[in-house]
Amino acid sequence: MSADNGYPDRHIVMETLRTAAPLLGLRAPVLATLDALLSCLPPKRTHHTVFASNATLTFRRNGISDRTLRRHVALLQDAGLLTRHDSPNRKRYSRHNREDGMALRFGFDLTPLFRRMTELVRVACDARTLQERIAYLTCKIRAAANDLLMSDPKHEAAALARAALRRKLTVSECEALLEGLEQTPAEGASDPGETMDMTGRNGQNVRHHQNSTKENIDRTAETSTQPSRQDTSPPDQGREIPVNEIVRLCPEAAQFEQAPTETVGDVVAHARFLAPMMGIDACSYDAARSRLGETGAALTVWGLMQIQHRIRKLGAYFRSITSGARSDGFDPIGLILSLDRERIPTT
C-alpha cells in the first residue's frame, strides 16, 4: 500500500493486471492506457477520478490518437475497471460545495478498479497457475516429441506436436497433443528443496532452522538512507514465530486474505496468492523456495508486502535477498520480527 493512503501502489496494481490480463481479455495497449490514467492520480487523495485532458493522456501514452484512447477507455469500462462521469460540456473537472463538504467530479473514475483489487489478485493467481500448467505441459510435449524423433525422424505425430508448440496453446490442446504421443518423459514427485520444518504445516508456528540471524534487508528497503542494522541476538536453531504474530505484524498482506490465516499452510498459500501482484515471477519464487524452503519464501513475501512502499522494485528486491547478491545470511523470520521493532507504540 502507498505510504500516503490505504490504496495499492500503481506498480502493484499494474503488475496484478498484467498477470491477470489473459483471463480478463485485456491486451497490453489497453493496460498501458490504464497505467497512464493511474499516473494522473495524486499520491494523496480522497477519490480515484482522473481529470486529465485527452492531450495529457495521449502524451503519456506516447502519442496515441484520440480515437484509440476512446476505444481503450470503452474497453476498460466494459471490463468493469472504470466508470465515466461526463460533464455537460464534456470537460473534466470537479466542483466543491464547502458548506456541506460535497463535490461533483467529472472524469474517469477508477474506483471500480480499486474496489475489485482483491478479486483481481485472485484472478492473477489463477492466471499464473494456468500459465505454469501450460508451461509444464509444453515442456512435456517437447521432451516426448524429441525422444520420438530421435528414434524415428519421420514420426508424424511428433513432428506435428513440435510444430504446434510454435503457437500459444491451451491446456486442452496440450493434453490432446500428449495423447497422440506414444512416449512421454518419466515424471516424478517434485523436490521443493525445503529448509524449513514443515512437519507443522497445519500447525500454528513457523520454525526456521538457520544459524545466521543476520537481517539482510538494509534495515527495511533499498530506498532507506539509514545503514543496515543487524540482529545482535545469538544464533539459534529452530526459531519459531506464531502464525497469528505473522498476521499481526503484516497487516498489509493480511488485508488481502481470502480466508482467515490460521496455519503455516495458510501462510504459504496466501504468499503464493500475493506474489504475482507484487511483481514476483514464478522463476524468482521457485528460486526462493529452493534456497529458503516453502515457508521461508512465504515469510519473505509477507514481510516485503509490509514495507513495499519503501522499495522501488519489489520483484527485483525479492530476488536479490532470496537468491541473489544479498541472500547470504538472509533470515525470513528476522525480517518479520524486525517489523515489530519498527512499529510505533500508540499513546
UniProtKB/TrEMBL annotation:
InterPro entries: RepABC_RepC (IPR047611), RepC_C (IPR021760), RepC_N (IPR005090), WH_DNA-bd_sf (IPR036390). Residues 180-241 are annotated as: Disordered. Residues 222-235 have a biased composition (Polar residues). Residues 8-147 form the Plasmid replication protein C N-terminal domain. Residues 243-338 form the Plasmid replication protein C C-terminal domain. NCBIfam families: RepABC_RepC. This is Replication initiation protein RepC. It comes from Salipiger thiooxidans.
